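Thread: AMP-dependent synthetase/ligase domain-containing protein, structure

OP (GT): Posting the sequence first so everyone is looking at the same thing. Length is 757 residues per the record. Can we get the structure tokens written out before standup tomorrow? I want them in the notebook alongside the other entries.
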Amino acid sequence: MAGSKGSFSTSSVLERLNSNDYSSVGKGFGTYCIVAAAILIPILFSTIFMGKKKVKQRGVPVELGGEAGYAVHNARHAELVEVPWKEATTMAALFEQSCKKHLPERFLGTRKLVSKEFVTSSDGRKFEKLHLGDYEWQTYGQVFDRACNFASGLIMLGHKEDTRAGIFADTRAEWLIAFQGCFRQNITVVTIYASLGVDALTYSLNETQVSTLICDPKHLKTLAAISSKITTIKNVIYFEDGETTNDLGISANTSYWKVLSFSEVEKLGKNSPLPPSLPTKNGIAFVMYTSGSTGQPKGVMITHGNIVAIAAAVMTVIPKLSTNDVFLAYLPLAHVFELAAESVMLSVGCAIGYGSALTLTDTSNKIKKGTKGDASVLNPTLMTAVPAILDRVRDGVLKTVEERGGLAKKLFNFGYKRRLAAIEGSWFGAWGLERMLWDVIAFKQIRAILGVRMRFILCGGAPLSGDSQRFTNICMGTVLWSLAETILYPGHRMQLCCALGSAIVWAIIGRGYGLTETCAGAAFTEWDDPSVGRVGPPLPCCYIKLVSWEEGGYTVADKPMPRGEVVVGGVSVTAGYFNYQEKTNEVYKVDERGTRWFYTGDIGQFHPDGCLEIIDRKKDIVKLQHGEYISLGKVEAALTSSDYVDNIMVHADPFHNYCVALIVPSRHMLEKWAQEAGIQHQNFSELCNKADAVSEVQQSLSKVAKASRLDKFETPAKIKLLSDPWTPESGLVTAALKIKREQLKSKFKDELQKLYK
């Protein structure tokens, strides 16, 4: 996921548009007729039938206990949703019942590793390239048996039921099997990001007193290096990748702990099966360590009831979710967003195919040339995404369009404008035949980047820009025909027009809002909501309340919409922070009716239809020297739309009357400008330090700031360009690619001080 903008290359996306072969849409006169009809007929019909859309009520106000505010619940559910079905009150019960229901069906898939090799770049760096084969599948029945075997094996290995097991690994099928296996013996799991630094890893393991650690083989050397600092671990279980402990440079007979492979533990359990010891609804299922944007990571205690409620709620939001769906899993399972999504897929009986951010597409960094990426091989219908992934897909496509120029660029831009007008205009503007034509001409190959069957993307982890949301909806959306209306009312002129003309514009992105403390869920956009910038109504498992923040100038009495701090209440609100009662008491509250509330620190506003929009964050607001308030997050979100910005952190000092910014520029865009401007440089680092480059980026920021209507004091007066990208591995961004403000301030302390001189 890390890297510069445009790293998802899409060089073949519009290749056919500059060729002379237009046989797919007709030749000669026929082509012109089709194009003319596609343009003129929908315009004529939309003029005749255009009408004002009726506003759908998605959330409704509700009177609740606790602190006074403006509260809303989901309009389609009067009562909070707690379980997907009556008997599934815990993750262990949900897993067992779903596996038995879907026993012979595909469940977890992993691509076969055919070969791997290392290539050397022009600057001498070596990169691993993988040749991956087809997906190999395990059924629901097979996965359930493996989880049961692993659970028994843990106890046979000597793990005590009242102690915790940790998972420190990348996303893979065995991660989920180990996770579910622990629940069969009522073992609380501690989940830790694979990219977490050594200090934070040591802190997390010691604080939760993990006695069994499950990890990737590549992490064994790291564990050996800090073995003297980890005081409670007795057993280490590693996932096999073809290596032995000798290959990994670690002995199975260390004085610190027992070391066994995952299959060895499964074999122990298979040979000595034990009856399950199942958890209760209110039991702690897992302690999830957030990579956090400030200080040491905090462990959020998530109950079985929390995660089951989220799964049940999201199942009501994703349209037509069924066993026919195939889910592409590649985000970190140690992040609550991905874990919640896979729990939804498990509940429904979907197939889950595992991949990685580095092998996602045909042109991803670790894919060997000529080998298909995960999306192309799996051809999924569903996936999760963080905004950075979608931003790179968009930027890669737009870069290709710009480079192609000519007819390709004109057709793409015209088709894009037509679809944008359809979404933002009348219901009839989404005219089906025209949409199909543009699919063939301009968007078919773009859709193929993530698989031609992709119908819904769950986006979360960070704010998604309106541009990226619109781009994905327009270029990767699917067409659903209302043919039933023609069959039911064949003689009715209006119904016939509806059937032929109003293919539904499928809002392929479902934007989610939530935090680890709310078990990933709080609000979720509904599939038929074409708006951007909002995060939808509350999920049916929770309430959302706005509480006035007088100091920041946000109140529930504000017009035209109530504003305030976002507070989430209901069955998805977690149990608090592990071993951190003071912080738990600060942000978690229980009202007189027994409802548990979490104070998010985010500032939101409710639209008249009950949809939430996040507009600010309390911690991001700084008061400048002359009394103006600046919202760092708001400014960063606006300036990210500059073509030159790959990542940005805005900084404001209360002792000055202006702000400054640290910027990781888009390497492709800045080097392209330098070439056109005749700026000589030896490497990218040297280019970032050149005054001309800084001036060029500064001018771009000023234009974007003006277009976004930022005040003068909100536009960075000085900037510093940084050549190295911010990655989760560097500790400067989270696994969801949100910036870690405190870590960035600490690392670039000297650079920030110079900007204020």
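GT: Both are above now. Quick notes for whoever picks this up: The chain has four domains: 15-50+386-506, 67-80+537-618, 91-118+128-319, 624-755. The first strand starts at residue 59 and ends at 61.
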